[in-house]
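User: Okay, second chain of the day. Same drill as before: sequence in, structure tokens out.
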Amino acid sequence: MSIRTLISGGLVVTAADELHADVLVEDGRVAALAMHGTQQWTADRVIDATGKYVIPGGVDAHTHMELPFGGTAASDTFETGTRAAAWGGTTTIVDFAVQSVGRSLREGLDTWYDKADGQCAVDYAFHMILSDVNEGTLKEMDHLVGEGVTSFKLFMAYPGVFYSDDGRILRAMQRASGNGGLIMMHAENGIAIDVLVEQALARGETDPRHHGEVRKVLLEAEATHRAIQLARVAGAPLYVVHVSAEEAVAELAAARDKGLPVFGETCPQYLFLSTDNLAEPDFQGAKYVCSTPLRPREHQAALWRGLRTNDLQVVSTDHCPFCFRGQKELGRGDFSKIPNGLPGVENRMDLLHQAVLDGHIGRRRWIEIACATPARMFGIYPQKGTIAPGSDADIVLYDPHAEQVISAETHHMNVDYSAYEGRRITGRVDTVLSRGELVIDRREYVGRAGHGAFVPRSTCQYL
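Assistant: Same drill. Structure tokens below.
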């Protein structure tokens, strides 16, 4: 039974507009919008949005649920991770299916379909991690694009695990230039980093802070530059993930100034945290070990500037949680054994709203970088990422005045710490609809595992 829902009296904020409007939802989609009070619609359910923003559900284009890494696995399942996403106002995630070396892309993708099927509280899609580029997997890329998995991630880091050399990267880029796929790049010079790791450990430098010191800014910038040049040779578009440093932003800006189809994302951890966190005593810095690593605080200004000038287009989380106890602790005495990743899928929309209040970005830019642009970048707009007739009714009622303190005590991610513990922010999700169904109802979870559906994607809409 389809329920007709009217969301009345709120300020509708999209990437393009802000207006006091009523939103009519029918059959899981937005049926109509009208200036508040101008239409006398009847509805089975009326939601009063007075004093609240009515915004599109967030699109987090970079998550890792249940990712095996370093002898353990990310602590959020698709069930717990998508529930936490909903609590944070995110209604679509794009997770990464992983190809194992020596195995097919198909096998990796099917494994991720099985993990997510029937488990998700909100909608989901997949990118594909290429760990083994060969004639067989290059052909498979074409099939995946046809199936709605239209982006492929490669790693210049992690030799022996996910690493691809320049020749393999070039071949994958050439294939993508023909089939419309988007190459996503983890841009760090992993070969050089491994030398620096070995040297640091030999000197007895084992604490978490050394993770940030060996993964140098220049090795991110160098890899970003190299990825851009390889993409130019291949005639392929490029999306650089988790950009953390001023020098890497400069490489992206220079490429975009030439008119190249090069895009960049950053993450809340680089905007709000720094090497000060990595240096916390008593091994607490391990909580903040991720790659690319947290940078000295002075890099934050360049990241915010990049978001304002559109040299960076997207803020995703790279949500990859590992519990401090029993997981991060695997690296006691050797920082290179600390599982890489931070929890954040629940915090992104709130932190970016705080950035609006702090004057870093405008209100519509908040929605642009968190909802509309990731949806366009990965081929699901206007189904996702906006509030418009025909769009999925993925809608968040957001209270811009509610105050909260971020804490592991109150978050819903399946991890025993918060990267933003004790941070006071203003703004909080009140109610969340996913395809017209209530998932969060006035701060109460009413969703269910299995509501979330797989979303096949078209190719990048910026090309």
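The chain has 13 helices and 18 strands.

User: Thanks, on to the next one.
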